Amino acid sequence: MVIDDADVDKATELAATLLALFEKPFIWSGREFFMSSSIGISVYPEDGHNIQQLLATADTAMYRVKQDGRNAFHFYHEAMNTDLQRKLDLDGRLRQALGKGELVIFYQPIIDLQTHNIVAAEALLRWQDKKYGSVSPDEFIPLAEQNGFIHKLGDFVIKQACQQAAQWQSIQPLQIAVNFSSVQFRYCEQICHQIERALAISGLPADKLEIEVTESLLFDHSKAVVALLEKLQALGTQLTIDDFGTGYSALSYLQKFPFHRLKIDKSFLQNLDTNAANRELVNAIVAMAQALKLTVVAEGIESQWQAEHLQKMGCDFGQGYYFSRPVPAEEFEQLLLTMNTAEPASVIDQA
To answer: EAL domain spans which residues (predicted)?
Structure first.
């Protein structure tokens, strides 16, 4: 689309008008259909000197809209091209990272707030790329979900985590928590097979494996997802709802699905000592979980005050930098050998 004698304000007004048109349903054969639109805008001559360049930059801006959630518009700016080049480069490098041994699993301890002992570990994937250094999971996990590589990553994590946890059972019985993406749950049979195979190969008892799923999965659940969760429960694995309170929280979900535990999102622990509203909310979540006979893990504990206050609230377990950052398997094993006999005050020194 070429707009004669238009400036940025006119282009903005036109884009907003076009978006508004798509808010109304389209009628076909007596049925209503809703569509969204994503609009990218480039400006001559700043973003290109010919139609091909302008179309390319507008296309880049449009894909940024899609990446950010769709149904909006963006003007092109040069940083978008830099971001796009990085994304494309990371996409190719991620596919090779497994074979190069650049992907490793770190483990973060989950602590019993009463005894201060390690009772579980959460397996967290880390990527150390030779070109970009440490790449955040917040960047490479969504990328893997988009390009389909998430299924190979998931298989790698569940195998490695189960094998490692099986070895640690001789030191102390503990559970291993593994996150599963909602994208992985689109292939329920594949997930079930991966879990069963990982347990069989490692010899890890099923009740020592904790499957973490997000609230969004429950909101968009299908019969296949419900059947898979029930099968995993029958298998003996523990089911946890992760980041509770950040999505579509509803009591009906907690009652309908066979969960054993919920994790309070770390955002609720921010300013817990000064924010009375947050304290009341966390207290309500703990009380609700207790009524439903679910155990509770608080994520993001960063101070002794938080740990003690959560323990007084009746929260069962804690996880966060106060106890330990995520660490490689060798370091976690040392924590397992030492933290379970250490006094609570010494935990910070080891973290």
So the answer is: 87-340
Determine the Cα–Cα distance for residues 220 and 108; give it in Å rounded to an integer: 29
What are residue 120's DSSP bridge partners? Answer: 110, 175
- CA pair distance 143, 91, nearest whole angstrom: 7
Residues 6+ apart with CB under 8 A from 253: 215, 218, 219, 241
For residue 118, what are the β-bridge partners? 111
Integer Rg of the chain from CA: 24
Amino acid at 13: E
pTM: 0.79
CA distance 242 to 262: 6
Is CATH 3.30.70.270 what the domain over 8-76 is classified as, yes or no? yes
**135 neighbors 129 (Cβ within 8 angstroms):** yes
DSSP 327: B
- What is the pLDDT, as a whole number, of residue 18? 86
Question: DSSP states of 191-253 as a string?
Answer: HHHHHHHHHHHH---GGGEEEEEEHHHHHT--HHHHHHHHHHHHHT-EEEEEEETSS---HHH
What's the pLDDT score for residue 156?
97
CATH 3.20.20.450 fits 100-350, yes or no: yes
Sequence length of the chain is 351
> Residue 340 pLDDT more than 70?
no
Per-residue exposure over 67-76, b if at least 16 CB sit within 10 Å of its own CB, e if not: beeeebbbbb
Domain definitions of the chain by residue range: 8-76, 100-350
